[in-house]
Give the backbone structure.
Amino acid sequence: MRGKTRAGIVSAVLVAAMAVPVVAMTTAAAQATTAMACELHIGKTSKSGKTIVGFGSQSRDCGTRGKSTLVIQRSRWYGWEDLASKTVTGSGYDGYVRYNCSGAGTHTYRTIHVGRTIGGSPKFKESNRIRVSC
């Protein structure tokens, strides 16, 4: 009888030990699914006086630790040049990035919003493009 009780306890402990990783994996999978649902939003790039302004936000699914970057760029003969950047952390509000274009001449500007999911997949949004003289 004693051997059967010991075997029953060992079986119960093994079953309990196997259940813990499953719960941990389920929780990790739920977090990854939420992170995958995280979306970046981009607003309209505009000029106010001598300042180029861009803005964007993250969806609520990004949580409080979600990070992404807003970047104002201008078109050059060799591609897009990064001029100013701003890190957006958390969700539920707009992040703004500004660039003083005074004396820069006439260029085409845009704002991009970039980030990565927990799994490493890239996220990218591009705003409108404006051609302005500063």
